[in-house]
Design brief:
By secondary structure, this protein is an alpha/beta fold. It is about 30% helix and about 25% strand. A four-stranded mixed sheet has the order 22-23-1-24. β8 and β9 form a beta hairpin. The radius of gyration is 22 Å and the shape is elongated.
């Protein structure tokens, strides 16, 4: 099992280009199940989760191939397999995004329940309630959710009990082929949902309300093909910008969307980092002392939970005490124990981590528990004295394209090496 060997400390300096957003690409890939003609998606990141989704789509009858700066999908007919088996769903929760498109296009679906997750429970009850509101018969049996809508889905008004990103995406994709009009209320507003709407509109969907918590969908009989582009990854880009601040570096993030990064940029500015923005670039410089600043995660447009672990690492090098409250997932402080092994002073109390800084970090052997925890430990290794071994980097491969290559280009010593199998 591969691991990262990091020789620190180092200073991030230079330019790095944002990859396409994994969390926008995955629902866009699932949306190809709705199409009747070929679909080209550009700037799809080359990460493991995308490979998993392509394999799942292939089993469902949607073949894909490399295209210029992207992927071309061939949907095939609407009578292919409608079953997403456990062996793939267990490796990637986003596989559940096939549920809405399969129900809408083929009138049936059988998708394995995704099960638990290292950072929280993440139930799909709102996905199911939304599909039921559109007229689908929903049944849970033997670890699978089965849906039937043999007469087609019907437009309805549905309000999510709380904003859910994948729930909004799943019900939205089902609604575009439902007969009549659908109104979805209390929707999540993440930029990735806006990108999915752009993709669906390219294929012929009729949707109003992009960027708001209320979406109005006018159902259409069928979706055609089209050519769409995945937005830049705000979480990947934010990780490099946090690394710049952490290592007293100077990094320019290119081909990004600064407006999607505003919650992070405002927080970085409050710590003493210098932030400059352009139409499609952000530069972060730090050469002085960082100030501790409290943080609370929240759905967009709040501070993203997917950058909380990386920000926690930054606070280990800021002067004072910071209180970091996690409101999205109930178990997202597992990285703190590993940071403490490297010298961080952190106390977790319920949904809040208190971080005292600055504290010197020293290299150690650490183990990642999830995707973003992996990134935070890599950042800690960049700031630490000596050698850090980050194990289980298969988590990183799920969501960061060419991570070690990009860090090396920014002046760091990061090597991918084989390690012993994890028991």
């Amino acid at each position: 099992m591969d691991r990262f060997r990091i020789h620190g400390p180092c200073r991030l300096s230079g330019s790095v280009e944002a990859s396409g957003a994994k969390n926008a690409a995955l629902p866009a890939l699932a949306a190809t199940l709705l199409a009747r003609e070929p679909v080209i998606l550009r700037r799809v990141p080359r990460v493991r989760d995308i490979a998993t989704m392509r394999e799942l789509l292939s089993r469902l009858g949607v073949e894909s191939e490399e295209a210029e700066n992207g992927l071309r999908f061939h949907p095939g007919g609407g009578d292919g397999s409608s079953e997403a088996l456990y062996d793939l769903v267990k490796t990637m929760r986003a596989s559940v995004l096939t549920l809405g498109p399969l129900t809408a296009r083929r009138g049936r679906a059988r998708v394995s329940l995704p099960g638990g997750c290292a950072i929280g429970v993440r139930p799909i009850d709102q996905h199911l309630a939304g599909l039921a509101a559109l007229g689908a018969e929903v049944r849970l049996e033997h670890g699978y959710v089965e849906t039937r809508a043999e007469g087609g889905l019907r437009g309805a008004r549905f309000r999510f009990e709380m904003p859910t990103v994948t729930g909004t995406e799943n019900v939205l994709m089902a609604a575009v082929l439902a007969e009549g009009d659908t109104v979805l209320e209390n929707c999540a507003r993440e930029p990735e949902i806006g990108n999915l709407i752009e993709v669906l509109e390219t294929l012929g969907a009729k949707i109003d309300g992009r960027g708001t918590d209320t979406l109005r969908i006018q159902g259409v009989d069928a979706l055609g093909g089209g050519d769409a582009t995945i937005i830049p990854d705000r979480i990947e880009g934010g990780t490099y910008l946090l690394g710049a601040a952490l290592t007293r570096g100077d990094v320019t993030l290119e081909r990004c969307r600064p407006r999607d990064l505003e919650p992070l940029l405002e927080q970085l500015d409050s710590t003493g980092a210098r932030v400059e923005t352009g139409p499609d670039r952000v530069r972060v410089q730090t050469d002085g002392e960082l100030r501790a600043r409290d943080l609370q995660t929240a759905p967009h447009p709040g501070f993203p939970t997917d950058l909380q672990a990386q920000y926690t690492t930054l606070m280990t090098q800021a002067r004072g005490r910071s209180r970091i409250r996690e409101t999205v997932f109930e178990n997202r402080f597992q990285h703190t124990a590993e940071l403490m092994r490297m010298g961080a002073e952190i106390e977790v109390r319920g949904d809040t981590a208190e971080v005292d800084g600055p504290t010197p970090l020293t290299g150690a052997r650490v183990m990642a528990t999830d995707l973003r925890a992996s990134a935070c430990l890599v950042l800690a290794g960049l700031a630490a004295e000596g050698e850090t071994l980050v194990q289980r980097i298969y988590h990183l491969d799920r969501g960061y394209e060419g991570f070690e290559e990009k860090l090396t280009a920014l002046g760091c010593r990061v090597e991918r090496t084989p390690g012993p199998p994890t028991p």
